[in-house]
Specification:
heterodimer; A: about 160 residues; 2 domains; 8 helices; B: seven-stranded mixed sheet
Chain lengths: ~160, ~160
């Protein structure tokens, strides 16, 4: 094996930067988030398409990270799933506070600083949404009567279950 | 298609570990050949493919949703690709935490079988898949929960040819 050549090839590859990096990050972020929602609900892509009033092929493209969905499409998904698929970090924290959920004791300055670091933002959003989801699911499990349907008690739930 | 090979580390991230295959007698691994192929690295989607790969490695893990299913039903042969692009990077996706990359290239034909180079890349991986599964069955290798392959990573073709 030519170790020197191998190292060179890999170093060159690692150094490549895509001009579409942010777009790809967001495509994958939305795709992963929608897939997580489906798994939590135990829904198929077909079921989501029906609930959101979208074509199954649209859902398939979104979930495989190939789509460039409009805000209208994302909103339809969020309505169907009763969960946020995208979040705005600054307002996301306010929403947490309003719901009485504290994820971690960091100041808004810290959040803004993280937000401004290009490489950090996607990971930040992904990590926070995961923490939020996990926390809220546990909270839901504790608070809701055993008989009550808990399927809508997930983290980004803004259309509360009645 | 039978050959002896070795599984070697490729890229490792927070969410997944990637390996590649070094075929006996070759100077470069299959994954490195893919990266070194001018038709691949001059492709306008190459940088995007790198972004996808690194996002899988560091952020999302090798989720099935981001791969195209290739190969035979029930095997692990998949391909990494980019939206609206014609690059296909064949791989064995074992789990969200571990993938073994092979070779690949530009797909400009409807079926992989119509392109001898791609067919070769895919069929090669089918052989690796076969050997890998046998080695797991025989408990000669195992994959940890964080995607690390342990055991004997050298595969001698004589040990895996089906003589039935």
């Amino acid at each position: 094996m030519d170790k020197k050549r191998t190292e060179q090839i890999r170093a060159e590859f690692e150094a490549i930067e895509s001009p579409n990096a942010r777009f790809i990050d967001n495509q994958m972020y939305i795709a992963a988030q929608v897939q997580n929602c489906l798994e939590r609900k135990g829904w198929t892509q077909k079921k989501l398409a029906e609930e959101a009033g979208l074509r199954p092929s649209q859902i398939s493209e979104i979930i495989s990270g190939e789509a460039n969905p409009t805000l209208k499409t994302i909103s339809a998904l969020e309505d169907a799933l009763c969960e946020n698929v995208i979040v705005a970090p600054d307002f996301f924290m306010e929403e947490l506070e309003e719901q009485g959920i504290i994820v971690q004791s960091i100041s808004m300055d810290t959040i803004s600083a993280s937000y401004n670091q290009e490489d950090e933002v996607s990971q930040f959003v992904a990590d926070e949404s995961f923490s939020f989801n996990f926390f809220n699911e546990k909270k839901g499990e504790m608070e809701v009567d055993a008989a009550e349907d808990t399927t809508n008690m997930n983290p980004f739930n803004y259309r509360k279950a009645s | 298609m039978n050959f002896s090979f070795q599984i070697i580390p490729f890229f490792k991230g927070k969410r997944a570990t990637f390996y590649t295959i070094l075929i006996e007698g070759e100077e470069l691994s299959e994954g490195d050949k893919f990266l070194d192929n001018d038709r691949v690295n001059q492709n306008r989607h190459f940088a995007d493919l790198k972004q996808v790969l690194f996002n899988l490695k560091d952020k999302y893990g090798a989720r099935l949703q981001f791969f195209k299913d290739e190969g035979l039903p029930g095997d692990m042969v998949n391909a990494l690709y980019v939206r609206r692009g014609n690059l296909r990077w064949y791989c064995l996706r074992w789990s969200n935490q571990m993938v073994i990359f092979g070779n690949g290239g530009e797909k400009n034909v409807r079926a992989t079988q119509d392109d001898p180079f791609l067919k070769n890349a895919e069929y090669g991986l089918r052989w690796v898949n076969q050997c890998f599964e046998k080695a797991v069955e025989r408990e000669e290798i195992w994959v940890t929960l964080d995607g690390e392959i342990q055991g004997n990573l050298v595969f001698n073709k004589e040990d895996y040819i089906d003589r039935r």
